[in-house]
Amino acid sequence: QVQLVESGGGSVQAGGSLRLSCAASGRTFSTYALGWLRQAPGKERELVAAISSGGTTRYSDSVEGRFTISRDNAKNTVHLQMNSLNAEDTAVYYCTTWSTPHGLRLPTYGYPYVGQGTQVTVSS
């Protein structure tokens, strides 16, 4: 059974940085993408960053240039370095993974595996 455990959330002032980590277990992730979703109060969940097993990345427009996603395939971990945080980044951040044997295609029917989430709060 796939398990995703996030860590690293917290509170920070605008302009600050946080680093999220996620430990994945329960299967081999060599053909699985890893990514980060977030959901702010009253808003839909959105994919903010994803990375394939080969290192291809994608970011939402709202975080491009400020967030960096990385993964360690040997340790089955994924990290999200978040810089220049602002109040709009306040949300619960969820780790996710899905099968993508070729490239970094998004899942057709939603995200099959999602962690419990970690809160990120940015105060202005």
Would you give an account of this structure?
There is one protein chain. This protein is mainly beta. It has strands at residues 3-7, 10-13, 18-25, 32-39, 46-51, 57-59, 67-72, 77-82, 91-99, 113-114, 118-123. The radius of gyration is 14 Å and the shape is globular. The chain starts with a strand and ends with a strand. The model has no long low-confidence stretch (mean pLDDT 95).
Report the total helices: 0
Uncertain regions spanning at least 5 consecutive residues: none
Along the chain, the helix and strand elements come as EEEEEEEEEEE
C-alpha-based Rg, rounded? 14 Å
Number of beta strands: 11
Largest sheet: 7 strands, mixed
Percentage of residues in helical conformation = under 10%
Structural class comes to: mainly beta
Shape: globular
Calculate the mean pLDDT score and round it.
Answer: 95
End-to-end Cα distance, whole Å, is 40 Å
Strand content: over 45%
Name the descriptors.
single chain, mainly beta, seven-stranded mixed β-sheet, 11 strands, 51% strand, globular
Characterize this entry briefly:
The chain has strands spanning 3-7, 10-13, 18-25, 32-39, 46-51, 57-59, 67-72, 77-82, 91-99, 113-114, 118-123. It is mainly β.
